[in-house]
Amino acid sequence: MDFNKTRYTLMNRRRRIYEGKAKVLFEGPEPGTLIQHFKDDATAFNAKKHEIVDGKGVLNNRISEFVFQNLNDIGVPTHFIRRLNMREQLIREVEIIPLEVVVRNVAAGSLSKRLGIEEGTQLPRSIIEFYYKSDKLDDPMVSEEHITAFGWATPQEIDDIMALAIRVNDFLSGLFLGVGIRLVDFKMETGRLWEGDMMRIVLADEISPDSCRLWDIKSNDKMDKDRFRRDLGGLIEAYSEVARRLGILSENESTPMGGPRLVQ
Ligand SMILES: Nc1ncnc2c1ncn2[C@@H]1O[C@H](COP(=O)(O)OP(=O)(O)O)[C@@H](O)[C@H]1O
Ligand SMILES: [Mg+2]
């Protein structure tokens, strides 16, 4: 049997549910499941800037798997079931709440710009912001008033989302601090997961250097998508270093030439 041909046919027969900027969603093997496929596309400023970065999808798949699996293990509900291969993971299909939830610990990016706070300033406490998920509108910032008035989430759901965001932030801050990285801020998405008549808000999408600001504790070097946004170069090297510190890439492997080598 020609294995490659069989595999190719199976891949093609899968139904593509959605293609986004960085990922593709395919129909999963069972009802209520999806396959999340990580592409190598890097986009910023609502896809006005776009490049292919070889190996990014592989790294994000592994880093996101690591974070979501650890969250599952400490009882933080997520959509993650298991990783399938280098670029794909099996997830539970959820009804995505159309909000990008941003948690900030240190001033950077749009917060610094809008409020005139110097990048790198420690915030008095973690701050949660909501943005309406709409590429057409450039993801505008919204308040709880907008969210409830337009029915994107109920007041109870907003409470649940904020509690989830704080748990994820506490876990991630500690995880990264332990490997010499400062979690400046991150973006997360949530969804409604139905189990019979019960509904829970769970963490969805991905958590990776594409969706976090990660600064080296000692040098303040950026180890995240700002390397791409700000044309700093060395994106794959930085993402590989994050993976290596988390124990996903083996200690003595560096990537520059042959692309990322991953530990099983
Ligand atoms: N568990 C899930 N169920 C349904 N949709 C999901 C789930 N997790 C993530 N998504 C959605 O899948 C898409 C992921 O692809 P991505 O390339 O990030 O898209 P986008 O360009 O919209 O950001 C996002 O729109 C995200 O909201
Ligand atoms: Mg996305």
UniProtKB/TrEMBL annotation:
InterPro entries: SAICAR_synt/ADE2_N, SAICAR_synt_PurC, SAICAR_synth, SAICAR_synthetase, SAICAR_synthetase_CS. One of its GO terms (molecular function) is phosphoribosylaminoimidazolesuccinocarboxamide synthase activity. Pfam families: SAICAR_synt. One of its GO terms (cellular component) is cytosol. GO terms for biological process: 'de novo' IMP biosynthetic process; cobalamin biosynthetic process. Residues 17-245 form the SAICAR synthetase/ADE2 N-terminal domain. PROSITE patterns: SAICAR_SYNTHETASE_1. CDD domains: SAICAR_synt_PurC (cd01415). Pathway: Purine metabolism; IMP biosynthesis via de novo pathway; 5-amino-1-(5-phospho-D-ribosyl)imidazole-4-carboxamide from 5-amino-1-(5-phospho-D-ribosyl)imidazole-4-carboxylate: step 1/2. Its EC number is 6.3.2.6. Keywords: ATP-binding, Ligase, Nucleotide-binding, Purine biosynthesis. Gene3D superfamilies: ATP-grasp fold, B domain (3.30.470.20), Phosphorylase Kinase, domain 1 (3.30.200.20). It catalyses: 5-amino-1-(5-phospho-D-ribosyl)imidazole-4-carboxylate + L-aspartate + ATP = (2S)-2-[5-amino-1-(5-phospho-beta-D-ribosyl)imidazole-4-carboxamido]succinate + ADP + phosphate + 2 H(+). PANTHER family: MULTIFUNCTIONAL PROTEIN ADE2, SI:DKEY-6E2.2. Belongs to the SAICAR synthetase family. NCBIfam families: purC (TIGR00081). This is Phosphoribosylaminoimidazole-succinocarboxamide synthase.
